[in-house]
Specification:
- 2 copies of one chain form a homodimer.
- By secondary structure, chain A is an alpha/beta fold.
- In chain A, helix 4 packs across helix 5 and helix 7 packs across helix 8.
- Chain A is globular, with a radius of gyration of 21 Å.
- In chain A, the strands form 3 sheets. In chain A, strands 3, 4, 5, 6, 7, 14 and 15 form a 7-stranded mixed β-sheet that branches.
- Chain A folds into 2 domains: 185 residues, Alpha-Beta Complex (Quinone Oxidoreductase, Chain A, domain 1); 150 residues, NAD(P)-binding Rossmann-like Domain (Rossmann fold).
- Helix content of chain A is 25%, strand content 25%.
- At the A-B interface, helix 9 and strand 13 of A face helix 9 and strand 13 of B.
- Strand 13 of chain A pairs antiparallel with strand 13 of chain B.
Chain lengths: 374, 374
């Protein structure tokens, strides 16, 4: 940063959403523009400016690319002219998303790993490595630095803080342990099992002494599940004509915990195969995000018949556990107890395609974009 | 019982299922036959013979009238010739249903209020009033008397032990308090609200300081909800063209607890109107029982987006709480804090029509059949 004194305007590449999307999105809905950013914090404010190093591509972002008829769990991305309309949604947003509306208009936002380059906040110093919700751009003015977590293990790859040590990691950990309430010997099924969350759920389940089967969308991914992540069994769901029968084969005793990221027909087949008192932590339903007509799940009655507990969770509710989680997971990584695979796209120009690739299953492992190296 | 000495054979009217049913059932699927029953307990056994006083008609019985392709949560009723096929299901059945297969072949079984007329069991004496799973007949040989609860409040109407003091009452109490985890001020929606379970849930919610809205299928029932059971609001769902909009009107702030007995399009509309962290105790889905093609619920993703907890329960899991519940509920009834409406059909001959009436909503309040007075 020697050449960019505080207060200087620098070029700032950023990714914007050009228009809202229905159905399957295309990378063309986004555009990479170059504007400028000020590296100075407004006088007297407690904001900070961060340099974005790694940004995360996450399936839930699909919802933000659609114009909502009614408020959704996160607001849609703002195109600019829609600012006024969007104000009325404010109270429904979870905090980290609320703040960014005012500073990142027209720029996509999501979790990222950042370095502080200017700060008016006493807890955040220039040079600090942090992660939180930032812009899909090179530099971001953060008006609420408190929403960022400090990075305590920079000796591990920093990109891990978009995944195994970040939002997906905390999601897997909280969903599996707090909602799934596993016991040794439980039968666990994980869908989207090679993705950012799934690969961790499977390994946490193995560490807990469970029997774990994962599904994924290619033989390459199935191979990863069995040979890298230590799942007991794995299958390519695209090769299975009757998922109900497939699950019956892998789980003759039934499923105790289904970690749900997929929804639709997969959920339907799983419900037929759950055991009494089974648990379904649900963190996403990626199979449904691009459908204009959602799949109707016809056997929800199984929730009654088998006394199932299905519970949704969002990572925000577990933020208070983050540093505890970070220590535990960093320990597993250093001891080699958890393996982790990521799929890194290089440069903001690749970000739109990387995001869309999540929905075709192009990525192998956690998808992220390297914006800059530290 | 003076005229029927132990060991005597007496005429025994009973209700049998003639054939399995698909789609909407008709009373013709059942038949009332007269056979004989022995009033003696087999020598050396710990069985008991009971005289059935009141038998309960409950929606879940519909499932037992269908031949299951795969084991369901309760076994189908046995037609007689199907005995061998049914044996393989045994391990899946909850205990009270398992025992009866062997003694009530061809006779329908369900919860009822009974008087002990002969007993080989030291805990059950002739003249005891009990409730449990018994036959749809005049006299039943009970091989596992331990599955019956003693009746501690015979000063209240005995028929109440098929409802407010029996299985539906415990279901409402456990579902609302243990699964729903209500807080004062919560917004509560109850479907099938004038039924055996719903009328109690609404009143327990009012006692807890919640705001309660109920739906039912006739203006007469809506009137009961508002003027007898003290619901804050109630509506006739048959008069509402757009249930989503109706719920938005009654719950502008959204729903914290939805007590689910209906399923299908109602569940779908409710999911749109739940508040974050809402709870859905699910005890039945009566709208779906007679459909050959079940309604597909298209917005299960709301479970994730709103971090909902949907949890099924069956009353068996709460049997250990029964006597605590009985005392609490008997107290409410005596203090006039809980009102209760039942719909009593007279005589076993009326039992088939009374059961079918549940699915057309003919009953007003808890449906039961008086077999004999004590």
């Amino acid at each position: 940063m020697a050449s960019t004194a505080a207060g200087e305007e620098v070029p700032n590449k950023r990714v914007v959403l050009k228009h809202y999307v229905t159905g399957f999105p295309s990378a063309d809905a986004m555009e990479v523009l170059t504007g400028t950013a000020s590296l100075a914090v407004p006088p007297g404010s407690s904001a900070m400016v961060v340099k974005n190093l790694y940004i995360s591509c996450d399936p839930y972002m699909r919802d933000r690319m659609t114009k909502h008829e009614r408020p959704s769990y996160v607001p849609e991305f703002v195109l600019g002219e829609d600012l006024i309309t969007n104000l009325c949604y404010k109270s429904l947003w979870p905090p980290p998303f609320r703040w960014y509306k005012f500073i990142c208009l027209q720029t996509l936002v999501n979790f990222g790993v950042c370095k502080v380059t200017a700060s008016g906040h006493s807890d955040y110093k220039v040079g600090d490595l942090v992660w939180g919700v930032t812009g899909w751009e090179e530099y971001t003015l953060v008006t609420e630095p408190e929403s960022f977590f400090k990075i305590h293990h920079p000796e591990l790859p920093l990109s891990y803080y978009t995944g195994v040590l970040g939002m997906p990691g905390l999601t897997a950990w909280a969903g599996f342990f707090q909602v799934g309430k596993p016991k040794k010997g439980d039968y666990v099924f994980v869908s989207a099992a090679s993705g950012a969350v799934g690969q961790l759920v499977g390994q946490l389940a193995k560490l807990t002494g469970c029997y774990v089967v994962g599904s994924a969308g290619s033989d390459e991914k199935v191979n990863l599940l069995k040979n890298k992540f230590g799942f007991d069994e794995a299958f390519n769901y695209k090769k299975e004509a009757d998922l109900d029968a497939t699950l019956r084969r892998y789980f003759p005793e039934g499923i105790d915990i289904y970690f749900e990221s997929v929804g639709g027909p997969t959920l339907e087949a799983v419900l037929e195969n759950m055991r009494p008192h089974g648990r379904i932590p649900a963190v996403g339903m990626i199979s449904q995000y691009n459908l204009e007509e959602k799949h109707g799940v016809r056997n929800i009655f199984q929730v009654v018949a088998k006394r199932l507990r299905m519970e949704g969770l969002l990572v925000f509710d577990y933020y208070s556990d983050y540093y505890k989680f970070e220590e535990e997971m960093a320990g597993y990584l250093k001891e080699g107890k958890i393996s982790y695979v990521e799929d890194i796209a290089e440069g903001l120009e690749e970000a739109p395609a990387a995001l869309i690739g999540l929905f075709t299953g192009r990525n192998v492992g956690k998808q992220l974009v390297a914006v800059a190296r530290v």
